[in-house]
Amino acid sequence: xxxxxxxxxxxxxxxxxxxxxxxxxxxxxxxxxxxxxxxxxxxxxxxxxxxxxxxxxxxxxxxxxxxxxxxxxxxxxxxxxxxxxxxxxxxxxxxxxxxxxxxxxxxxxxxxxxxxxxxxxxxxxxxxxxxxxxxxxxxxxxxxxxxxxxxxxxxxxxxxxxxxxxxxxxxxxxxxxxxxxxxxxxxxxxxxxxxxxxxxxxxxxxxxxxxxxxxxx
Length: 217
Hints:
Blueprint: E1 14-17, E2 26-31, H1 38-41, E3 53-58, E4 62-65, E5 73-76, H2 83-104, E6 109-115, H3 117-125, E7 135-139, H4 149-157, E8 159-165, H5 173-187, E9 192-196, H6 204-216
Parallel strand pairs: 2-3, 2-6, 6-7, 7-8, 8-9
Antiparallel strand pairs: 1-3, 4-5
């Protein structure tokens, strides 16, 4: 048996909050977590929309039923099966998203925000599109332990802010310490990290404040 890979054109969903036009100053590419859909994920950002700022929500290319074979549906960015091909496809998809956004708002700066699985997805995308990101907000997600030199170089050049919860069932305090230690020892990189009271979810007040702060830097 042989395995072949065929490039196939597909329509992919993105949702947008705010206006994408010549007056847009800042665009946040927001990447959802495992099992989420952009129709629900974007609700966390509605109060953050102001004049000159927009949010773009690409949706992971894998969809599935969250429980059994019916009911609620979620999306995922990748699994361990054919993971390298999934990462390659993510980069192609997100590059197309950025090209489309740039066509709508030629003067805007790009920012990146990832939640949960969206953090690793976003960090692996860094450096694989010619336009740099101004900042990255990494919320309640595991950072890739195998970040390549291209993404690492791009990561060092932007404004980074990580946030972890005090009671996160998926990224507990021990895992948080391991992530920070790994990046310090392997990559010699010690970023800004904050901690909030709560679990695997956004703190809306901190989220809004951080978006505003990173845009000012």
